[in-house]
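pinned: reference chain
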Amino acid sequence: MEINNILTLEQLKPKLNRLFQLSGQKILAIEETWDSKQGTPVFTAKGKYTTRGWTEWTQGFQFGSALLQFDATGNSQFLDIARKSIIEKMATHVSHIGVHDHGFNNISTYGNLRRLILERLIERNDWEIHFCEMALKASAAVQASRWTSINNGKGYIYSFNGPHSLFSDTMRSLRVLGIGHQLGHVLMGEGDREISLLKRLIHHSETNAKYNVYYGEERDRYDVRGRVVHESIFNINDGNYRCPSTQQGYSPFTTWTRGLAWVITGYAEQLEFFDTLSDKDLQPFGDRLKVSSHMIRAAKATADFYIKNTPIDGIPYWDTGAPGLSQLGDYLDQSSDPFNNYEPIDSSAAAITGQGLVRLGKYLQDHNEIELGVAYYQAGLTIADTLLESPYLSESENHQGLLLHSIYHHPNGWDYCPKNYKIPCGESSMWGDYHLREFALLLMRLSENKPYSETNLFRKQTLVQKQTFVPKPFFRINPWNQFFFSETSEQLNAIYN
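pinned: its structure tokens
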């Protein structure tokens, strides 16, 4: 990847504005045509959203997109769509015991809605705050209950494949446990045993960093630093690690780039979250550096791998080991080509990663790693610059997708391949569209010197500054944190009343 070191947010502003003009049209087009009896829109075929009966993991992205659109434009039509849909259709996702997708579905909906209220972009009402917080607490507990213990006394949140399966995807879905902890919630087990959501978050994060991320040393000395495996398999009888695996990648020994993206952004967000925790919160797990060191290591390794193994414009092919890449010549020294005849692009991996690189870059700059932080930040802007125009931005009124050239499940042949083409191209996905909107909103907020976050008033030093009032909309502390960790409604009332 060739990082544009002089690109600025100011230069991206026209593209960001254009994106949200198109975004609103796409959301309304889906609302006008989608039959909810079909389930959840997942990806497009011939420019129209369709579904795939695997899991309903994209529902939150559908309604969360409307909330992001309202946030970016102030158009209440999109807020109305989101509110109605969340009430009518999202309850089953809160109590869904069969998936690892709680952070995807429920943070994008209940989390975003709560954030908008706390940021005073929506008129405050207590019932809606409590409604969102109850949903998030329940979702966090259900997610944490999907637990497999391993032989080191720790464990992981297992995927929908079953207790033996650790997915890299869960690193971004994990954030719902952080919210649950910040809201003072715990998982109640047998005998009324209280199970810490923060403890499970930390242990899962450590397990993922140890087994799903490779570092080219010690156990991984045979492998490449920063490579990510989609899935790790464990023996649930004795808790021992068995082998790498993959569901959507080319092989267990190559890197599925969307899995890589989930890991990069997941660890960047976790690092932001840990900056909001007190030393008292972390005391049971060691000091702050001890707890966060594995996150920093994993985030840097995976970010470096992405930059090294991606074409110059920042958009990756679907798997870094896909066999057809050998037919593309020096493809890493060229711009990505979604219309090639050998291997598909996955633009959704770029939309996810771009946000993660910006967040990781800001985090490192805030922690005195200026040079590396700037490099990651500029890499994120470089990705945005590419995604926000042709051939990746969908400008046609006849196409319901926003981000073109997204891939869902290439090994299973689920993606639409146009006539006279050898590989899938030209289509969109609900997660790709959502994350492009989320990425664009982050950059828009940063360009206006506003955070994309709920405020982090759990910080002690902020709580003692009660006399300092921030005008509407209020934003303070850690402007890079989109993790939705914030005060409860009771804390807000105590601070501002």
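why pinned: Residues 454-489, 491-497 have pLDDT under 50 and may be disordered. The longest strand covers residues 240-245.
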